[in-house]
Amino acid sequence: MSLKEKATAFLMGRMGKTAHVRQITAIDHRLLQLELQLPESLTWRSCQHLKCQVNSTTFRDYTVAHYAENTKIATLVIDAGHIGKGSEWLRKLAPGDPVLYAGPGGGLHQPTGASQLVCIGDASAIGHFLSLYHRRNPEQSFHTLAIDEDPLPAQIMSMPIRFSDGQEKDVINWLDQLQLPAHDTTFYVAGYIPMVVQTRKLLKQLGWKQVKAAGFWE
């Protein structure tokens, strides 16, 4: 165990809380919706995550896609379509199982006051985008473009999604169709780091100024 892992395990042992799995649902072949019954209320902001213990020495951060204050149920939408300790842990969970967690943490991205909010990212960023969608002002227009190898559902937890293979011309055509106001649009780009860097660069080249980026993995 690395020094960082030891420090995290120590903090989890002192500060960690135990939630219980209420339900786990397959959205498609790789996206799983995990509902956790929390032991206490959560002061929820967009894009915050819970640090979950996935085995004795491993911890993963998962964004709270939605939180119900009246029931204290936190919903996480997680990409489990790859090989990893987090995916292995997630696919073995069953209702009633305990989940040790800490948090929430993060929350750097928040809905701005712009009339148009635009999200671009891969499957790993869906929970991130859902948290923005559920915390936005209902009067704000919300657009999500999923750049991934495999198509995603056209709608997840009421959030509409457009699929793209990531070719620049397709992204540009999609943006042209939206006819977004130049000074009243905020972009959020998240997921695979090289894709985030490339997409942010493209948006800047197209003249968009309000671009918030978050890379999750390489």
Can you walk through the features of this model?
- The protein has helices at residues 3-15, 85-92, 126-135, 168-178, 193-205; strands at residues 17-26, 31-37, 48-55, 58-68, 73-79, 98-106, 116-121, 141-147, 155-156, 159-160, 162-164, 185-192, 211-217.
- The longest helix is centred in the first third of the chain and has 13 residues, at 3-15.
- The chain is of the alpha/beta class.
- The strands form three sheets. A six-stranded antiparallel barrel has the order 1-2-5-4-3-6.
- Strand 1 (17-26) and strand 2 form a beta hairpin.
- The mean pLDDT is 93.
- It contains five helices and 13 strands.
Structural class: alpha/beta
The overall strand count is 13
- Give the overall shape: globular
Q: Please give the order of strands in the largest beta sheet.
A: 1-2-5-4-3-6
DSSP summary: helix tally:
5
Summarize the entry for a quick read.
It contains five helices and 13 strands. It is α/β, with parallel strands linked by helices and 218 residues long. The strands form three sheets. It has a six-stranded antiparallel barrel with strand order 1-2-5-4-3-6. The chain has a five-stranded parallel sheet with strand order 11-8-7-12-13, with helices on both faces. It has a two-stranded antiparallel ribbon with strand order 9-10.
Q: Which key phrases capture this entry?
A:
13 strands, 5-stranded parallel beta sheet, 5 helices, 218 residues, alpha/beta, 6-stranded antiparallel beta barrel
